UniProtKB/TrEMBL annotation:
Any one annotated GO CC term: cytoplasm
PANTHER family: DIHYDROOROTATE DEHYDROGENASE (QUINONE), MITOCHONDRIAL, DIHYDROOROTATE DEHYDROGENASE (QUINONE), MITOCHONDRIAL-RELATED
Biological or metabolic pathway of the protein: Pyrimidine metabolism; UMP biosynthesis via de novo pathway; orotate from (S)-dihydroorotate (quinone route): step 1/1
Source organism: Spirosoma sordidisoli
Cofactor note (record): Binds 1 FMN per subunit.
Cofactor(s) essential for the protein: FMN
Official protein name in the record: Dihydroorotate dehydrogenase (quinone)
Length: 346
């Protein structure tokens, strides 16, 4: 029903506008007494065999919602009700920012993908942390694993980026279970330069120093681009070992336009942005496999990119991922996606 009736209706509207409309309806509906419990009965698959303990945290199942869908920590409860084992909020920046001019989110229907150049549009780390604290106080003992994906503001020069990441880390520390350092979005000018070995090592070392001063340090992960060379991936492996961070998320969106089915003229008209969804599946799996094999499996990997089925998730897990995340496929496949993947994994 979703793919045959609802999805064509949704695709009549601008991608970003319908995202906000649908999520607002979801929040309103699940606030009605009894509907949250009904939703959980429909979409949540509870089975001990699905549990995963990774970097010291126990996840009820291995399927999470990737960063980008819930930028402002407004949908954690609702996504949990749809069966996700964890939710990663953000990317958040220390100060609110509007992001890039609209339109900035485009569908590649023939590829079951998206191009986005959102530009870290968000309401700021402080408000996100406050919403998470309110959620934690009101969830009635229900456990939801939450990751905090942090980035720098667009107008912050790279030389001062560390301060932005520290501000985001401090704001979210008591509100999230793990952190993700995002230096791999293609939509903030110069951000990917921070993936180079020296600046990245300095950034992660400083965050780890701050982290280790806390009574209970939080796992810190690094989100990387799929466009890195093997030599750069070798650097990532060395940096993880040197800084002692908890793991890697592979991968963010790609700037490549290779192997797209969508007409090249249409893609060219869309312009800049990162490609996500099915076109990313093979490359993200290759990156996961490379990191896992070259590192000897010494750190956990969260696999993301083109996961639309249990078979896709299994491909990532077999390549070396400990957990997986979805985003674009949730739009194309609908609200039962997490349950279908988990059932297939069982």
């Amino acid at each position: 029903m979703y793919t045959r009736i609802i999805l064509p209706l949704l695709f009549r509207f601008d991608a970003e506008t319908i995202h906000h409309t649908v999520t607002s309806i979801l929040k309103f509906a699940l606030a009605i007494p009894g509907l949250s419990a009904l939703c959980r009965r429909l979409y949540v698959l509870e089975d001990k065999r699905l549990e995963r303990t990774v970097f010291g945290l126990t996840f009820p199942n291995p399927v999470g919602m990737a960063a980008g869908f819930d930028k402002n920590a407004e949908l954690v409860s609702e996504l949990s009700d749809l069966g996700f084992g964890f939710v990663e909020i953000g990317t958040v920046t220390p100060r609110p920012q509007p992001g890039n001019p609209r339109p900035r989110l485009f569908r590649l229907k023939a590829d079951r993908g998206l191009i986005n150049r959102m530009g870290f549009n968000n309401k700021g780390a402080g408000p996100a942390a406050e919403r998470l604290r309110q959620f934690s106080a009101n969830r009635g003992g229900r456990r939801v694993i939450v990751g905090g994906n942090i980035g720098k503001n667009k107008d912050t020069p790279n030389e001062q980026a560390l301060n932005d990441y520290l501000l985001g880390f401090r704001a979210l520390f008591d509100a999230v279970d793990y952190f993700v350092v995002n230096v791999s979005s293609p939509n903030t000018p110069g951000l990917r330069d921070l993936q180079e070995r020296e600046p990245l090592t300095n950034l992660l070392t400083a965050l780890q120093t701050e982290n280790r001063q806390r009574p209970a340090p939080k796992p810190i992960l690094l989100k990387i681009a799929p466009d890195l060379t093997d030599g750069q991936l070798d650097d990532i492996i060395a940096i993880v070992a040197e800084t002692g961070i908890a793991g890697v998320i592979a991968t963010n969106t790609t700037i490549s336009r290779d192997n797209l089915v969508t007409d090249a003229a249409q893609v060219g008209q869309i312009g800049a942005g990162g490609v996500s969804g099915q076109p990313l599946r093979e490359r993200s799996t290759a990156v996961i496999r490379y990191l896992h094999e070259r590192s000897g499996g010494t750190f956990p990997i969260i696999g993301v990119g083109g996961i639309a089925s249990a078979e896709d998730a299994r491909e990532k897990l077999d390549a070396g991922a400990s957990l997986v995340q979805v985003y674009t496929s949730f739009i194309y496949e609908g609200p039962a996606l997490a349950k279908r993947i988990n059932r297939g994994l069982l």
